[in-house]
Each structure stands twice: as C-alpha cells, then as structure tokens.
Specification:
By secondary structure, this protein is an all-alpha fold. The protein contains seven helices and no strands. It has one domain: TspO/MBR protein (Ferritin), CATH 1.20.1260.100.
C-alpha cells in the first residue's frame, strides 16, 4: 500500500509541476490581474495550498481505490483522463486564453471527479471523503472560470 501511495503522490505532484509551468508568471501577470475576476476569488497563495491538499488527499484515495476496485483498467483510464484534463486546463486558460474551452475542460474534470465520488462510493465508503476537497475545489474553480468568461 505504501508503494501505491508513493506512486500516486509522484504522478499527482508531477501533474501539478507540469501545470505550474503554464501558470507561473501568467497568474501574476498584468493580463490576468486586469481581468474582471469573481469577488470570491481566493488570494494567490491559497491556490498552492489548495492544490497541495487536493493532490495529497487524492493520492491516498487512489491508492485505496487501487486496492479495493477490481477493474484496474477502467480505474487507470479514468485516472489518466483526470490527469490530462487537470494539466490541460492551465495552458488552455492562461496561455491560449480560451476561457470557454477552459470552462469546458474544467467542467468535464469536475464531472469526472463527481463520478469518482459517487460511482466508487459503495466500494470505498469513508475513504471517499478524501476526494471531497478535489470536487469542492473544482466546483469553485469552475465558477471562477465561468465568471471570467462571462464578465470579460
């Protein structure tokens, strides 16, 4: 189990590292800070704390899921899709400045994580609480993306 936790920690924090390449500089740029942002937008430091917590919890969730879920192929495919969508949002939003495509991407990721939460609940029970920070943050992040799309 410890090896699985380590593997998922590496994979999830690798995704964060790749994503941060696309946000570094852009999140504090004049372009981004001049956008009309949602009044509930958290301060910049919160994003790092949120993603650290999310990926830490999600790594444990996935390690437990790998132990309990029989269909590893489906679980791996869903994890892979999540991994790609998570990384993809950053260049779509910050580099390409495609707010609509970004909203579609993050909304798809949100729905996928809600699927994880409910579809695997019967097998994972209380462990499912570990995915709640991810789901709640994605709902919030989707609303931030939508606000920027519609108000700019």
């Amino acid at each position: 189990m410890i090896l699985k936790i380590i593997i998922f920690l590496v994979l999830n924090f690798w995704a964060l590292a790749i994503g941060s390449i696309w946000t570094s500089g852009w999140a504090t740029s004049e372009w981004y800070t001049s956008l009309n942002q949602a009044p509930w937008t958290p301060p910049g430091w919160f994003f790092g704390l949120a993603w650290f917590t999310i990926m830490f919890c999600f790594s444990f969730y996935m390690a437990f899921a790998w132990e309990k879920i029989k269909n590893h192929k489906k679980l791996a495919i869903l994890f892979g899709i999540q991994w790609i969508l998570n990384i993809a949002w950053n260049p779509i939003f910050f580099w390409a400045r495609e707010f609509l495509i970004g909203l579609i991407t993050i909304s798809t990721l949100t729905l996928l994580m809600i699927y994880f939460l409910f579809f695997y609940y019967k097998d994972l029970k209380f462990i499912s609480v570990l995915i709640l920070p991810y789901v709640l943050w994605l709902i919030t992040a989707s609303s931030l993306n939508a606000y920027i799309l519609f108000m700019n």
